[in-house]
Amino acid sequence: MTDPTTNIAISDVVPKSGAGMRVADPGLIGLLGFVIATVTAQLAHLGFQTEGPVFWIGAVFGGIVQVTAGMLSYFAGDNFHFIVYNAFGWYWIVVPGFLLGEEVGIFIVADSAHAVFTLAFSLIALMFAFAAAIHNSVLPVTLLFVFGGLGLQSIGGFTGSPGLESTGSWLLIAASALAAYMLVEKFYWRTTGRRTVPLGPPWFSGSPDPES
Predict the structure, then answer these.
(1) What's the CATH code of the domain at 107?
(2) pTM over 0.70
(3) Which residues form the signal peptide (predicted)?
(4) For 159-170, how does the pLDDT look when each residue is reduced to its tens digit (9 = 90+)?
């Protein structure tokens, strides 16, 4: 079957194993893990719930699920998603460790150190955004929202400004909404061969892969 909007055969974009067997797209669980973990954390930051769910949901959906997606991307030969999902997957394994340390009183991470850690991943998201721009329009915008959200939360941590941290949380919720949007597109494209929602054109040339 061929996608009429791109004239690309579905079999050309469905990931395959080394033996040529069609396999599932790990991006499906990667996006799902990102959305669930990020929304849960930001609801806690905004005061709508406690940090208890952040520990468990962050570790499982943000950490284990995204790292799994990253490693499966490795076997699919997808370097971009291999590094993106692994980077933020391991981020989400470390963050629950911060929470656990605060709860039990061992290896407590200072607010300034936590802010530095957050700033580092803000800059990583910015770096990823340029490479993402060869795929479509929504993916780099999503990463730019992650960059802005984590950046504001980092600055808020350095300055003690809850307003900046709250603004960062809303930007990260917006990033989650965009990721959910991409998940809908990817799910229906992979399962039905139909484009359901537009992702927009790539900003730069450099990759024949139309997927997010």
Answers:
(1) 1.25.40
(2) yes
(3) none
(4) 999 999 999 999
